[in-house]
Design a protein that fits this description.
Blueprint: E1 11-21, E2 26-32, E3 42-43, E4 45-48, H1 55-67, E5 73-80, E6 90-98, E7 115-118, H2 129-144, E8 158-159, H3 160-171, H4 177-186, E9 190-197, E10 205-210, H5 212-220
Length: 227
């Protein structure tokens, strides 16, 4: 029996805000739309929900088919449903993703050409995509202060200067070097390696690795990450 046949049916889209860190700046991955409406304009990556598909699966599928990305941090952000947000009645569920750009610097195999844009140079996007980006950035800043999601934007091995630059890029402000290091090391979540990054100086800086087991242990004690 069909219970809801008398009600309106609407299209449901999934749009993804993809953050990356190029060791200096936070960037957003965009593409020029190749179909109408809004053909040729800058857009987030998105697509429509299939009939027998849940939202998280749709977000994973869309990201993979358009960029080739797999196994990345992905979180539902917000649902946008203004009646006039698109040329037809389309409800969009936005997600944001955090990727390691050292692993995803090129996008061969995806259906669309992708371009990284620094946040400060973001072009005008179609529909309400600029609003989505701004909300995703606010969510990223809020969560980065209380959860170690920032490490999702770094290579598996990183130096403390690189880690500090990441958080400065997320928050758009400079941190005191001594205070930042003291705070981040006091949590006991970083494993110091017997390796150095010598790309910026002959002396080099020791590399570290985020220890998820220690973080899980910290959470189990009722404590947490606080930057």
């Amino acid at each position: 029996m069909i219970y809801y046949s008398s009600y309106c049916k609407h299209l449901v889209a999934v749009d993804c805000i993809i953050f990356g860190f190029d060791q200096e700046k936070i960037n957003i991955l965009l593409h020029k739309r190749k179909f109408e409406p809004y053909k040729g304009n800058w857009s987030l990556f998105g697509g429509f929900l299939n009939e027998k598909e849940n939202l998280d699966a749709a977000a994973v599928r869309i990201l993979n088919s358009l960029t080739g990305f797999t196994n990345i941090y992905l979180e539902q952000l917000f649902t946008y449903g203004n009646v006039d947000r698109d040329s037809e009645r389309v409800i969009s569920v936005a997600y944001y993703a955090l990727i390691k750009t050292d692993q995803y610097s090129s996008f061969e195999g995806g259906e669309y050409d992708a371009v990284w844009f620094p946040l400060e140079e973001l072009p005008e996007l179609i529909l309400d995509h600029n609003i989505m980006v701004n909300k995703a950035l606010r969510r990223l800043r809020r969560k980065a202060s209380s959860e170690p999601i920032g490490f999702e934007l770094l290579p598996d091995k990183f130096s403390l200067p690189r880690l500090q630059r990441l958080y400065e890029a997320i928050y758009g402000e400079d941190f005191d070097k001594r205070n930042f290091r003291k705070k981040i090391l006091s949590m006991g979540l970083l494993e110091k390696l017997n390796e150095k990054d010598k790309t910026e100086s002959k002396k080099g800086a020791f590399l570290f690795r985020f220890d998820k087991d220690k973080y899980d242990e910290l959470i189990g004690k009722g404590e947490g990450f606080e930057l």
